[in-house]
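Chapter review. Work through the record for ABC transporter substrate-binding protein before attempting the end-of-chapter questions.
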Amino acid sequence: MHFTRSLARPMMVAALALLGWSAQAQDGITKTSIVLGQSVALIGPGSALAAPFHAGAKIYFDKVNAAGGINGRKIELVTLDDRGSPALTETNTKKLVDQGVLALFGYYGSAQVAKAYPLIKDSEIVLFAPMSAADEFRGAKYANVFSVRPGYAEEAAAIARHAETLGARRFAVVYASDSESLAALDSTERTLPSLGATLSVKAAMGSGAVANSVDTVLAAKPQSILVIADANGAASAVRDIRAKGFRGPIYGYSNTGESLLAEELGPEGAGVVVVRVVPKSENPKAAVVREMLADAQSANAGKPNVYMVEGYIAARVLTEALRRVGREPSRAKLRKAIEGLDNMTLGGFRVHFADDRTGSKLVELSLIDSQGKIRE
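Structure tokens for ABC transporter substrate-binding protein:
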């Protein structure tokens, strides 16, 4: 088991902190700290997106702590590595809840969130800003989940509208069989037909069978192809689709990994359109991006990407809620503060939780150009 409080600190530090919570913390609050819990993949499946998210969040929390914290309390993000395993997410979440945290933060993976949720559903603990887009988390069944990012239904709608402008509304879908891709597929099957698009065929990418799935969808003569997979799987499918002569639009959801896919494909990715749910990481026009770039540079955090931006924004939104809680924080007060974030703008990024457990509706499309670069 790995316990990580920062990508730059020794893992043992977090382990010792975890062991000490029960003696100090009441619902994640001590005289000097506000304790948040996170189970996320720092290695293994999903880590290419989850680790930058974690790093972005830590950059912002560390910035807040360097300025004195929240009413004199430092934000302590204790992160347990689940290596992309839902079963390990469940184990980690039980540890976090049993030891006492104010809230859970920034989980990655729809299957992971679903596995962790029963441990908090009858409590006042909220799970804030999961990097998971399954539509079910926006429903009444998951009342303790507050998402900053929109769900796959909104992503599917953006893709459908774009395809309509191109006169290419007859879709085929190539999809991987991991849990996050299946969650996206479920939304696709419900959303695209409701918006007037046609889903003519779908084909699973079995192990080593990408070419077979591509042959299946191309035989249906689609106008657009939606590839639902991580960056590695999507890149394999895109290469084969183009090699077999398809020149229509190819789309990917946010879990495909915008910048990761562009790096995998290079110029071969020309014309691929990928959903993004936060401002582009190289866009200096967005104040929140300028601030994150400066903070990342100061923290020597490496090359920023869109997932680091998402983590930074999620941490900033939660910090604003913590400030509104006041000097005597509690789980119930934090939830009320989140629900009170009404039409608020942070660095140009709009957040609105009043009467909604999804704070942002931002969905934008990125295009990979002929140089393998991301364009808006």
